[in-house]
Amino acid sequence: MEEYAREPCPWRIVDDCGGAFTMGAIGGGIFQAVKGFRNSPSGMNHRLKGSMTAIKTRAPQLGGSFAVWGGLFSMIDCGLVKVRGKEDPWNSITSGAMTGAILAARNGPVAMVGSAAMGGILLALIEGAGILLTRFASSQFPTGPQFAEEPAPMPAPSYGGDFRQYQ
Amino acid sequence: MPVAVGPYGQQQPNCFDRVKMGFMMGFAVGMAAGAMFGTFSCLRVGMRGRELMGGVGKTMLQSGGTFGTFMSIGMGIRC
């Protein structure tokens, strides 16, 4: 249970980056397997081969883009923690929006605003869910808050990366 | 004080419970996000009325599923 509390700040970046990569690679593997299977010419052999190819080409890519999101996200998060001197949901929301903006920087200001709004909204939703879950969990079982707190900031990068990938 | 309530033992919910919890949370978040973004994108391509409902519902389910899967993986790799 100890590793479940969030890491202290500088190490959180590494943790999030690696976690996001793993998550993206596994999740991308699952989705790409299905996609490759369906997009191949008929015949079991072709389909299996096609899904293997899709996994090999796309899953690491997806993992990489998740990792970029996660790393940048927690870097900004840690920066905000240092600057503001406190840790609250606004940190994650702001850093989600900033991450979205920075990663879309090469597509021009309009794309930056759109992507920032998306990141901010997603993070706000996740934080809200985390808070609700914490409140619910703390009334249900004693150790609730500990593990309810963690998932909130982590998977956000994931979906952002995912969304951007298909855009 | 609550002493060992519910089906989850005292100390820590086990791995599967955590994955399930992650999936549920991801599904809820994904549904909400899908409702928002789905409405925008469906309005943009010009859906109205019943068609819009269907489009938004589909987007919601889709993004809920994606989100939930990723979230449960994220929970799974940490336990």
Automatic annotation (TrEMBL), chain A:
<feature type="region of interest" description="Disordered">
    <location>
        <begin position="144"/>
        <end position="167"/>
    </location>
</feature>
<dbReference type="GO" id="GO:0015031">
    <property type="term" value="P:protein transport"/>
</dbReference>
<dbReference type="Pfam" id="PF02466">
    <property type="entry name" value="Tim17"/>
</dbReference>
<keyword id="KW-0813">Transport</keyword>
<protein>
    <recommendedName>
        <fullName>Mitochondrial import inner membrane translocase subunit TIM17</fullName>
    </recommendedName>
</protein>
<comment type="subunit">
    <text>Component of the TIM23 complex, at least composed of TIM23, TIM17, TIM50 and TIM21.</text>
</comment>
<dbReference type="InterPro" id="IPR005678">
    <property type="entry name" value="Tim17"/>
</dbReference>
<keyword id="KW-0496">Mitochondrion</keyword>
<keyword id="KW-0472">Membrane</keyword>
<keyword id="KW-0999">Mitochondrion inner membrane</keyword>
<comment type="function">
    <text>Essential component of the TIM23 complex, a complex that mediates the translocation of transit peptide-containing proteins across the mitochondrial inner membrane.</text>
</comment>
<comment type="similarity">
    <text>Belongs to the Tim17/Tim22/Tim23 family.</text>
</comment>
<keyword id="KW-0812">Transmembrane</keyword>
<keyword id="KW-0811">Translocation</keyword>
<keyword id="KW-1133">Transmembrane helix</keyword>
<keyword id="KW-0653">Protein transport</keyword>
<dbReference type="GO" id="GO:0005743">
    <property type="term" value="C:mitochondrial inner membrane"/>
</dbReference>
UniProtKB/TrEMBL annotation, chain B:
<dbReference type="Pfam" id="PF10247">
    <property type="entry name" value="Romo1"/>
</dbReference>
<dbReference type="InterPro" id="IPR018450">
    <property type="entry name" value="Romo1/Mgr2"/>
</dbReference>
<comment type="function">
    <text>Induces production of reactive oxygen species (ROS) which are necessary for cell proliferation. May play a role in inducing oxidative DNA damage and replicative senescence. May play a role in the coordination of mitochondrial morphology and cell proliferation.</text>
</comment>
<keyword id="KW-0812">Transmembrane</keyword>
<feature type="transmembrane region" description="Helical">
    <location>
        <begin position="23"/>
        <end position="43"/>
    </location>
</feature>
<comment type="similarity">
    <text>Belongs to the MGR2 family.</text>
</comment>
<keyword id="KW-1133">Transmembrane helix</keyword>
<keyword id="KW-0472">Membrane</keyword>
<dbReference type="GO" id="GO:0016020">
    <property type="term" value="C:membrane"/>
</dbReference>
<protein>
    <recommendedName>
        <fullName>Reactive oxygen species modulator 1</fullName>
    </recommendedName>
</protein>
<comment type="function">
    <text>Has antibacterial activity against a variety of bacteria including S.aureus, P.aeruginosa and M.tuberculosis. Acts by inducing bacterial membrane breakage.</text>
</comment>
